[in-house]
Amino acid sequence: MSPAIAAGSFHSLDSSLITVLAxxxxxxxSFPYKRVVVTGGAGFLGRFIVERLRTLAEVEVFVPRSADxxxxxxxxxxxxxxETRPDLVIHLAAVVGGIGANKKNPGKFFYxxxxxxxxxxxxxxxxxxxxxxxxxxxxxYPKFTxxxxxxxxxxxGYPEETNAPxxxxxxxxxxxxxxxxxxxxxxxxxxxxxxxxGPGDNFDLETSHVIPxxxxxxxxxxxxxxxxxxAWGTGNASREFLYVTDCADGILSAAAQYNESEPxxxxxxxxxxxxxxxxxxxxxxxxxxxxxxxxxxxxxxxxRRLDVSRAREKFGFQAQVPLxxxxxxxxxxxxxTRAVTGNQRELLGSLPS
Length: 353
Hints:
Layout: H1 18-24, E1 35-39, H2 44-53, E2 60-62, H3 74-84, E3 88-91, H4 99-104, H5 106-126, E4 131-135, H6 164-184, E5 188-193, E6 195-197, H7 210-224, E7 228-232, E8 238-239, E9 241-243, H8 244-257, E10 264-266, E11 272-273, H9 274-284, E12 290-294, H10 309-315, H11 323-337, E13 338-341, E14 344-347
Parallel strand pairs: 1-2, 1-3, 3-4, 4-5, 5-10, 6-9, 7-12
Antiparallel strand pairs: 8-11, 13-14
């Protein structure tokens, strides 16, 4: 077996696993899968899912690394499934970024996400995988979807332009999932998480999403004594944000309990305007300067707020971490895990569960 997917020990993401153990207790005797492949399992969301799965007795978890398995290539996917023989695949891997990265890479984001999803589902079917969990994106919703976003509205228009290539590529997994269930009886589900944030997020200003970008800008401006920070757009757009551990719990609840064709939103059901979000982040980071809006930059989709009733009804999911508490944890993690060497900043340390 390739060392990149060996199911041995996994470095703990926290010195205490109390939270993880409490979350997974309900699955300890009933989690129906014993061999699990998590694509993107070394990434932001994936690390929390893998950590939770590895608290379950008799569950082996395999995390394919990109250096060993190129998930755009069918031959690598075949080799992955032949070596690991999974009965469950949780597909989290994605080529993604914020608005700026989306604008620079529309073709790359479309092609690589589309091909990954299509080939993983097909090879999972051919290798007799019992269940496939596809993580989609809220970017798949039409640009002017009425709020709250209901799953029934997913096809009622074209996505916001900067998100469309990525969002549509991911949404094709829903089409494939439903058609494969109809023709082959293949058990796959499609989930639509809200915008994620939390410890371990991507804080690279070129590719990050709004929360980590604003946290980093505010902290660095405070440390430098800068009088202002710049924020993209007008601040009038709204977003729904989901703390990463809540998302991990929602996906695992769906993996264990949900076996239907209809897509399911995973979120909080609450939205906040970006202008208000900036003020909260400025307060939590102790930045007291001015926020200068770059109104020539795109806002992206005008509003995002999900109807989360289906997740609650189908598998009992309800987010637990309020936005301000999650932001506080994220700011604290970022500040305490940075190591400064000259002009380069790296994120070090463990991730809380």
